[in-house]
UniProtKB/TrEMBL annotation:
SUPFAM superfamilies: 2Fe-2S ferredoxin-like. The keyword Thylakoid does not apply. This is Proline dehydrogenase. One of its GO terms (molecular function) is iron-sulfur cluster binding. Keywords: Oxidoreductase. Pfam families: Fer2_4 (PF13510). It comes from the Bacteria.
Amino acid sequence: MDDDVQRGTPIRILVDGAPIACFEGETIATAMLAADRLAFRQDTRGAGRGMFCNMGSCCECMVTLVGSGRRVRACLADARDGMEVSTRG
């Protein structure tokens, strides 16, 4: 079934310091879910929060881009080679 699937160039991102292999053209959320990283942020009590809508309508998948400190919705942001992401705010 996967014979017709074309993937982008293999790349790597870091999520909370851990390397995650993914492909160009995938979102941060896709890369995280494929690597079994299900918690995208923490609530006020420190509990992990996962995906909800996966289309940018909610903010459950907000992550922080380490280099800029910018918060983005992981379901809408493209993964870039060498990108560092934090789920800890």
